[in-house]
Amino acid sequence: MNLYEHTIIARQDTSPSEIKQLTDKYSKIVEKNEGEIIKTENWGLLNLSYLIKKNRKGSYIHFKIKGDGKVIKQLEKNETIDKKLLRHLTVKVKKFDLDTNYFSKNEDIEKFDKKIKN
C-alpha cells in the first residue's frame, strides 16, 4: 500500500456544513475503493497566491490516505467534476507526519508570544 497526502481547495463561499459534506463524500470514495483515511485536517479559509476562478481565498481540506493508485485516480476523477472545488493536489510520501499540525491556531499564538518576549 502506498501513502498519499491529498489536499483539496473549496470555494471561499462554501459553508462549514458543505465542507463537512465534501469531507464525508471524498472519505467514502476512498473507503469504497479499498483505501484508508489515516487523518483528515481542516485547515480553514486561507489566502490563495493568485486568483483561481475569481476567488482570492479557499477552504483547505487535507487527507492522509493509505491505498493504491486506483483510489487516487477515482478521487481526482470526482474532484474535477465538482463545481465547489477550485484545485486538488496529491503527493506520494514515504511516511506520514502525524504529530505536527501546521495550521493550528494555538501554535501560531504561542510562536507569536515567544517572538514578542524575546
Structural summary, described in words:
This protein is of the alpha+beta class. The protein is 36% helix and 42% strand. It is built from 3 helices and 4 strands, in the order βαββαβα. It has helices spanning 16-32, 69-81, 105-117; strands at residues 2-11, 36-52, 55-67, 85-93. It has a 4-stranded antiparallel β-sheet with strand order 2-3-1-4, covered by helices on one side. β2 (36-52) and β3 (55-67) form a beta hairpin.
Question: What characteristics describe this protein?
Answer:
single chain, 4-stranded antiparallel β-sheet, 42% strand, 118 residues, alpha+beta, Alpha-Beta Plaits, 3 helices
What count of structural domains? Answer: 1
Approximately what portion of the residues adopt beta-strand conformation? 35-45%
CATH C-level: Alpha Beta
Shape: globular
At CATH level 3, the topology is Alpha-Beta Plaits
Order of helices and strands: EHEEHEH
Q: Poorly predicted ranges (pLDDT <50, ≥5 residues)? A: none
Count of individual beta strands: 4
Strand order of the largest sheet: 2-3-1-4
**Secondary-structure-derived class:** alpha+beta
The whole-number mean of residue pLDDT values reads 85
Measured distance between first and last alpha carbons? 46 Å
| Total count of helical runs of at least 4 residues | 3
Radius of gyration: 16 Å
Largest sheet: 4 strands, antiparallel
What's the CATH superfamily, by name? Ribosomal protein S6/Translation elongation factor EF1B
Helix content: 25-40%
